[in-house]
UniProtKB/TrEMBL annotation:
<keyword id="KW-0378">Hydrolase</keyword>
<dbReference type="InterPro" id="IPR017850">
    <property type="entry name" value="Alkaline_phosphatase_core_sf"/>
</dbReference>
<dbReference type="InterPro" id="IPR007312">
    <property type="entry name" value="Phosphoesterase"/>
</dbReference>
<protein>
    <recommendedName>
        <fullName>Phosphoesterase</fullName>
    </recommendedName>
</protein>
<dbReference type="Pfam" id="PF04185">
    <property type="entry name" value="Phosphoesterase"/>
</dbReference>
<dbReference type="GO" id="GO:0042578">
    <property type="term" value="F:phosphoric ester hydrolase activity"/>
</dbReference>
Amino acid sequence: MTAFPAGAQSRIVTAQPPSADKETARYFIDPATENSPARDKIIQLLRKRVKYVFVIFNENESFDHEYGTFPGANGLYSNGQKPRDAAHTPGFVQSYTDPATGTRVSVRPFRLGPAQNATVLDSVDHSHKALARKLDVTGGVARMDGFAQAEFSGKSGPAKTKAQIARGREFANLVMSYLDCDTIPFFWRYANRFTLFDNIFATEDTPSTPNAIAMIAGQAGETQWVKHGPSGHNGAMTGTINGDSYSGTGAMQGVPVVNDPNPYWGSQFTPPNAAPEPTSPHENYGKHGDGPYNISTNLTFATVPLTAMGSGIRKTLSGDRHPEQNQADIRHDIPAIAASGHAPVAWRWYQNGYDHEPTDPPGVATHDHFVAHHEGPQYFGYLADNTIARTSLKGLGDFFHDVAHDALPAGGGIIYIRGGLGNIDGMKVPIQNPDFPAKLTPSDVKAIRDAKGGDDDHPSYADRQISEAMNARVINAIASNPKLWSQSAIVITYDESDGYYDHVPPRILSYGPDGLPLSRGVRVPLLVISPYARAHVVSHAEGDHNAVIETIEDIFGLRPLASLPDEKAALKAGDSPRFNKFGPPGFHQRHLGPRDINSPVTDSLLSAFDPKRLAGTAPILPGSYAMIPTDVVASLPHYGGQGCQRIGMTPEDVRQGINTRIPAGFNTLPATLPQYNHPAP
């Protein structure tokens, strides 16, 4: 894996193959023909042009699962410049032992499309322990060859009944599947027209919550672990959540966060005089077995919303109802941020279901679409328990209202957008083949639509085209407003991989108190859309969610989290025998915290921006170039299932004449429709 030095833009950005789309060809500027201005110059130009950064933060997709055959990207069959065979693709051929036959079964990547109703698949295992098995780190290097075996072992269960073995087989196959532009044509269209990043990873080798936290903090509690140890707090419980009443005392999960606990704020541990935060009616707030409750301890380290408070930090933190508890690990950060003299930067976190949505009854916020463990800011008391800061937390419908009514923060801001368990547009899963995996009954179709109506791309509950439609509506809302579009940069990215196969080994930067790899996780997609973006290119800049944070800091002039006194001290303390012992012999824990300072290990997203567009010597990309017609967005399946043809793209496997084989009797929904799992002999 190549780490490119900061500023080497011409080396880390390459052109995609020539486009059949005339409009894309019109705006394409070959990066090989451009000089690369100094990093500081790019930042200077961005600060003049970009006032709003929008982060559409989707759920649970690996890069190879969605873009593994995207032309010009480092994917399953090509390094982006030339074809690559299976022998030189880590983990391309995987195997598991089938106890029914006693043989090793080989699995390799295969394409799913409209004939397999590929807009809906089931979620694979993305627990922290399973992800470690999938990476299969040996000698400090991830071999990427444990995906199929981890799925089979985890899903077939200890008893290994015929039904369990059948389930394990289906998941061992499913984890190696991939999609293309026939299934997610909008996402591919954006990647074709703007800048696709193919070397961005999950910050943590974990499920969603730690990476939702990392999107604003660059970590999931590593500095809190260094300062206070890994154990969660004990606390008094009160109240009723989802029909369960709580009293007495109990233990919370500790740090770093490696599972999907719900936030402390809004849980049964929340003090009675705290600012009220919503709960999710579909999530578990109780125990898993004999362990602690499914609640995170209160998080107390620095975040982008904290540094964004700037010179107004003391005024904003005056709304904190429990400052002694909530500000325990930012006491030195606060005066450092205040002394910067930087004017406050507004921020918003819009998440489906947080408050009243258009699908709710009048005056009643059901929170039916809300996934509490995806709401990053709700884990931090100085934000969620703060009567001033928490006004930045809103629902998805609020975003569209605010754009339409010119109610976004005046003068610019940092805007995060997340979907949820349902969608607010009344869209239903498109069943493109009623005969797959067998002739679907009305109850089968109902089961699929009841389970998969979400809009954040999470395989557990979302449909991919409903999800890309939500993304398109967000982009259309911004791009249809000329003033807003001219001041915007939009990032589309994901929290983690869901555990789906990807072939690129992440750099192993840290280990947790359980001795498992902590950072980084599996590669995820990331796109940058802006009037100042490079068109029709792929950036190979290496990073994780810290790349998003660093770019935000560059644009708004915020102090890097890793440079703040409390975080800097913890980062230094982490590289010590006390913490190095959790890694292999000789390993140094140099990254137990944020890494949002540019280095060969972690880059920003600056390579997405075209120097000529920023300088005004080349035309900016018009809003119309980003927009997809409203009727097309609303019509499912998108482009009638002919996405590749309609957007003029040829996936790499098709270009090379590679025909993959779908396993006989394969079921894409082994958990949703288990009755169609291929039976064991």
